[in-house]
Amino acid sequence: RERERERETVMKGRRREAEEKGKMENSTEEGHSESDVVGELMQVIETVGSFVGFTRTQRKECLNLVRRLKLLVPLLEEIRELHTSIPAKALYFLTNLKKPLLSAKKLLKQCYHGSKIYLAYESEAVMCRFHAVYDNLNRALDDFPYEELGISEEVKEQVELMGMQLKRAKRRTETQDIELAMDMMVVFSKNDDRNADSAIIERLAKKLDLHTIAELKTETVAVRKLVKSRSGENAESIQQIIDLLGKFKQIAGIEETNVLDGPVSSRSLKKCPSLFIPHEFLCPITLEIMTDPVIVATGQTYERESIKKWLDSNHRTCPKTGQTLSHLSLAPNFALRNLILQWCEKNNFELPRKETYAGSSAELIEEISFLVQNLSSGQLDVQREAIVKIRMLSKENPDNRILIASCGGIPGLIQLLSCPDSKTQEHTVTALLNLSIDETNKRLIAREGAIPAIIEVLQNGTDKGRENSAAALFSLSMLDENKVMVGCLNGIPPLVDLLRTGTIRGKKDAATALFNLSLNQANKSRAIKAGIIPPLLHLVEDNALGMIDEALSILLLLAPHPEGRNEIGQLTFIETLVEITRDGTPKNKECATALLLELGLNNSSFVLAALQYGVYDHLVQISRCGTSRAQRKANSLLQHMSKCEHIL
Predict the structure, then answer these.
(1) Which among 320, 323, 461, 575 has most CB atoms closer than 10 A?
(2) What is the DSSP string of 12-64?
(3) 613 lies in a domain?
(4) For 422-443, what is each residue's pLDDT tens digit?
């Protein structure tokens, strides 16, 4: 028995030693872990602070989030200074803080490196991710043990301030760029043939900062990564993004290739990788070996065809240096061409065959000057031929639009808008539409007094003339001062009439113009007085026209206006909106839910009417399965409905 007792005593002693040893090891590991957690959190905040140049659609939200995250730095620094060993409770909170910080880093990284087109297309979904980050950060900081850690009152107040800012940011009313949203909807809609398409594409390219070669190459890389990460998911929306990127490239004068193939250049070199060719022989734009090198005003050399496309796309800077070009002349670089030919002969390399450059700018200026002169001819046939040629020259070439304006073509065309011949009017207004795509020309056309004459064609012209007049007013009204001018000159009533009585294409062009004009507060009243709401309600109810989203978007602009709200809120239309939330496309449901929310926030009777028509179940379904924006709107409307029921 004594031996057994002795053995038990020894075993207990060994167990005690083992436990103490284990505690020491655990303590060492915990100490290492504590140091790592604080260091890792500091590193995450430092990394997100280094991100600059966020995409425009999320720039404000990104900068605000980075600024708020930096408010955590003094807290972490104070913890590191005050404690060599962090209490278990505090360590738990810090570990919980790590996950939302990493989520914030991932989101900010996507807004920094991601596809600009995708981020604009999914702006609502991205905003939901920001709100989720805000929620998670606040939860992680709730009941943080400031006193236990000895954190100063100043630092505590700073962190609590951050928490309040995050809560306010989540409650903040949506500040979506509604003009951008409408433009995205138009370019992504299927089988759309409205005339304003080119102007919309150019505006989108500027809004998304995708109009230079460097920006488009970066976007191409981002889209490739997006396609790879999606692995075939959302194939339709991904294809739409790729198609829009192609349109942006076309405007910038870059030849389109399959976004998914080859290196990121206008065209990939075949059979001979560029690294085998001397760098100075490659065009800086296409990265191809040059066959016809020319020198621009800055002294840089480019392939003639490539730099010509760059200049034709209304660029007036050197692509490589970014300097403004003092002139647009191109001088052949014979010395470099001879060196390239010698290298090709020595290395048995065949230069790609290219079409020779046809025509010169001097000849083009002479031709345009001659056409502008003929606009003043006393013979109608000569005038009409000149208009048609100017129309074709200005259709696709940005440089031609500038040349025609500089040669005095705009005043001559405006005079012919009053020509009694309807076909001449039609060609003239279409030529002005093409010229108005250029930003400077928009101001010039309005300043020369074109808007009253365009409105006259809109009222009394041919179907084609009315369509193109609406498209021209849309293009001109991209400038805020022109929105005001079109409204003051009584241009809205004939647009409403075209919306009501026009062809399908005319209705679409009228809707696009009316949406743009209604961004101006005074024009909302004018549109409502002109009777815009009945035809919009008809477009919503007639599914065959395929204009439900456009009509609902305009109604959403008009709904905050008291007169508009009362006219929109007819019981029969509330029932139609409820039916759309049940049977519409995802985008239809999104727009209908947004409009119901806008109406309901201002008048509880609209909410009660929608409930009577059975909207509740549809909203619950949308809140689970709708688009990101639709889910947000549905949840807001459901919350508002519960408040209304509580009050009643």
Answers:
(1) 461
(2) HHHHHHHHHHHHHHHHHHHHHHHHHHHHHHHHHHHHHHT-----GGGHHHHHH
(3) no
(4) 899 999 999 999 999 887 888 8
